[in-house]
Amino acid sequence: MKRRDFLRAGSLAAGSLGLAGCSRTPPPGLPPGQLLGPSQALGHRLRDGTGFPAASETRKVEALIIGGGMAGLSCGWWLKRQGHASFAVLELENEAGGNARSGSNPISAYPWGAHYLPLPGPEAPELRLMLAEFGALKGDPHALRPEYEERYLCFAPQERLHIHGAWQEGLLPQFGIAQAERHQQQRFVEQIASMKATLDGRGRPAFATPSARGGSPTAALAGISMADWLQQQGYDAPSLHWWVNYGCRDDYGTDYRQTSAWAGLHYHAGRHGQASNADSDDVLTWPEGNSWLTRRMAQGLGDALQPNAMAWQIEQTAQGCSVLVYLAQENRSVRYLADKLVWAAPAGFLAHVMPSLPPPWQTAMAQLSYAPWLVANLSLRAPPAERGQQPLCWDNVLYGAAGLGYVVANHQSLQLHDQGCVLSYYRPLTEATPAAGRKLLQTAPHAYWARSILAELGRVHPDLPGLTEQLDVWRWGHAMLRPTPSLFSSDALPRLRQPQGRIMLAHSDLSGFSLAEEAHYWGVRAARWLLDHKDEFA
Amino acid sequence: MPYALLFSVFVVAACGLAYELVAAALSSYLVGDSVTQFSTVIGVYLSAMGVGSWLSRYFQRDLIGSFIRIELAVGLLGGFSAAALFFAFTWLSGPFLLLLYLLVFVIGMLVGLEIPLVMRLLEHRLQFKDLVSRVLSIDYLGALAVSLLFPLWLAPKLGMVRTALLFGLLNVLVALWTTWLFRHELVSRRVLWLQGGSALVLIVAGFAAADRLSSIAETALYEDRIVLAESTPYQRIVLTRWRDDVRLFLNNNLQFSARDEYRYHEALIHPGLASLPWAKRVLVLGGGDGLAIREILRYPQVESVTLVELDPAMPALFKQHPALRGLNGDALNSPRVRIINTDAFRWLESQANAYDFIVVDFPDPTNFAVGKLYTNTFYRMAERALSARGRMVVQSTSPLYARQSYWTVVQTIESVGLQTRPYHALVPSFGEWGFILAGREPYTPPQRLPTGLRFINADTIPGLFNFPPDMDRTPAEVNRLNNQLLVRTFEQEWKQVQR
Ligand SMILES: Cc1cc2nc3c(=O)[nH]c(=O)nc-3n(C[C@H](O)[C@H](O)[C@H](O)COP(=O)(O)OP(=O)(O)OC[C@H]3O[C@@H](n4cnc5c(N)ncnc54)[C@H](O)[C@@H]3O)c2cc1C
């Protein structure tokens, strides 16, 4: 979609505002479905300042963690693991998980956001411990090449790309690509391999995941966009540009012209995980995506996790932190008094709930911008017919499309025969500004998305629209922090990482890009801080 | 007038024989055992004709009207007999034989009525000796014509459905012609015209639809020799017959040929099960045809056989279809057999140390879905379901045509901590075929085997374990869910064989 079309679509959609949200009877030719998303009403109420009830009760805890996404849950997981009991994790939604939440239907569970975890490298020992605890990693979690549970390693065949009218294996464009372009691709891959092996001044990998355990962004890479860096290095092959841009959109929801080269290269050079029973680029995945992890973490927390609890005002005093929390189901507020506080919700939201924001954080806020995303799950009676040699894969990408393609949610099913399939379609709204994208998300009706998605996928699977029985759409207005050159060349991230008095932030935002490993790292770090531990692994 | 009636005798006789031949040919194609089918069908038909002739005495008045009505009935019944039998066979496999004989009997009886009635019509127009000689000789001539035409031209060119309809049409035309001839003597000629016209319309409509009926049935018999084709939600099941050989195809892959399946199934079961004289509980994964179970049931000490088969249509077919029940010795109806229609992989997850002998008889790894059933994750679960001293046997493609694939399966089974004993046997319709025995303890070949085996005996068993150089072990990697090496290897190797 061109930028112009996008804006026009936005205004068209805005015109049909009244339709948004309700689509019981779909227009003819379109499958039924729902428009879903995180509870926006509460968020708006917060920003509008239209008030919440006053506190009717006071609760005391040593540590309070706000936000039950990957980061907040990891924080609680580590606390519990170290035997700490006096804490609470508050989650606004009715279920923890944040961007890793999922849904399910009779065919399969399916992700609404994060759906896979790359093999964690030696830089992520806590994450490996957690995987071992959950039975996804077997034997020694600190082994150079641990063994993973093969039911959770992505099954073959893994990836294919639809390009020039046919499916090819793998995502790097090869089919119908000229020799000269392929040489450039080769050079890029080699350059990445050498970056991957580069160490920083302290002997750590220059690019590591979590990024805090690797080198700091260098000025040369931080302030330039990934697109410009490619040009600067003499890469002009369109297929390579597409591939690199795809990577930025896929992991960061951001066009490569707005992505810092440091982040763009991190995507390719920052993974050092290996396995004794899988290739290093294999990933862990489940039908429900990463909520396989967050559900287990949430379960471990038991009563310490409180869903339907939204922090709406935070104050820091000499004695401790006072937090007003709205309990949506009871329609009342309670006051939490805590010695220490971890803000594990998006960093940018803190400004809305903390009137007296510490000045170092205050200045950082201006650098934060969030990417809007859309995820749709399509339930099909049967998998679309295949014409070529390449069978349906886990990840199926369309060259040059607005969306990122689709993942087959039930790919990890052990059944020989499923009753249909669920395709999870991903689309970052990178064609226009984040604000325009959010506007479109707020206003476009279900039929608009259904039409656009079916048209896009129908180009390569003519039978897909007819096979689709349900098409649900999830809108993420502020899905993830955008790793822009200006963010990485500012001191915003280092400032946000510094605790202020009794409050520390813990969220993937602190990395500047949104990855499960990053969220996990910041969560565990905050737990150590709460426990006054020296860093075991740092 | 007499000549016209005599001509109709010719037609009527020809039609009678034609229906008989159609029924006999059809039933021998569908049910098999042509000698029995031909003689029983002809027997029933002849005796029914006798009954019809005897019943003719009860026709007193309106002989012409009765003759015409009988013609119409024969025409319709006989004309649609082939189509009806095909559909009965495809959709109601149970009462097929009953329907066949019933139909043959009714047609035979009606035909048996015809000749006496014609003779009585001609009674006053010819002398008795002339009457008998002419009617009977023309009757035999009509039969002769059809018996020559049927195998030479009708069956191969027109097929069963159309042949039957063609003769049905002739019967109806005779009825109409007779109505015209006797239009002045008939009391209820309006009604007869109407009935005749309707019958004509029906038969013509039958011809129009014959193409579609044929594509289901005829081509099956004469081109593909398909006796059954069924698409279930899981696969396409096709059963073919060619002379005495029955073959089963699942998704176009040959599963067995009745001619040599005993070699396959004896080799699959006996080297393993005969070495476990104490084995009581047996599990069969895949193999809903019951042929492996037929071999297992030869062991009296086996108390229960659990068959896990995804597609309920398979065991249902092999439980009911007469020819298939003959093939598997009615194994699936044995009280020792329990059938579970579910996905083997998911089901295995919940089984622990339960089975003394496990038979893994899945289709070849031709796609990624089936390929999952050949991975270490699968064998790990199968291993868990094995009792302490239990043993498992796995059908594992051909060590000759797909050598790398075969040894990949061996390597994969060994990777879950089981000791393997690979072996192979020659099954002509597949070629050299491979199996793998696996267990926690070393294997010693059995000395005693059940009686009545045609392929395996104590002398042939040791030879199965020798691998000549062209199919001897080659280094291979473990087949995992996340690499599915086997599917790729198998595809490449099989492509080379076909080239
Ligand atoms: C569409 C999409 C696909 C993705 N795919 C992947 C992937 O495949 N792999 C991967 O590694 N990463 C992926 N990600 C990135 C994903 O964001 C991270 O992996 C990770 O889940 C982020 O966790 P977090 O805890 O940092 O943040 P969040 O998930 O944002 O968690 C924050 C939590 O705080 C809660 N909260 C907010 N405000 C309040 C309040 N006032 N009071 C109480 N609670 C509050 C929120 O409800 C939320 O649960 C994806 C993201 C998106 C949007």
UniProtKB/TrEMBL annotation, chain A:
Signal sequence, start to end: none
Annotated stretches, region: Disordered: 23-42
Protein name: Amino oxidase
InterPro entries: FAD/NAD-bd_sf, Zeta_carotene_desat/Oxidored
Taxonomy, superkingdom: Bacteria
From TrEMBL, chain B:
Membrane-topology annotation of the record: Multi-pass membrane protein
Lineage, top ranks: Bacteria, Pseudomonadati, Pseudomonadota, Betaproteobacteria, Neisseriales
Pathway where this protein functions: Amine and polyamine biosynthesis; spermidine biosynthesis; spermidine from putrescine: step 1/1
Subunit structure and binding partners: Homodimer or homotetramer.
Compartment annotation: Cell membrane
Keyword tags: Cell membrane, Membrane, Polyamine biosynthesis, Spermidine biosynthesis, Transferase, Transmembrane, Transmembrane helix
PANTHER family named in the record: THERMOSPERMINE SYNTHASE ACAULIS5
Record bears the keyword NAD: no
Transmembrane segments: 37-55, 67-92, 98-119, 131-154, 160-182, 191-210
Protein name: Polyamine aminopropyltransferase
Annotated ranges, domain PABS: 200-440
Binding site for spermidine: 265, 289
Catalytic reactions of this protein: S-adenosyl 3-(methylsulfanyl)propylamine + putrescine = S-methyl-5'-thioadenosine + spermidine + H(+)
Domain of life: Bacteria
NCBIfam families cross-referenced by the UniProt entry: PRK03612.1
Listed Gene3D superfamilies: Vaccinia Virus protein VP39
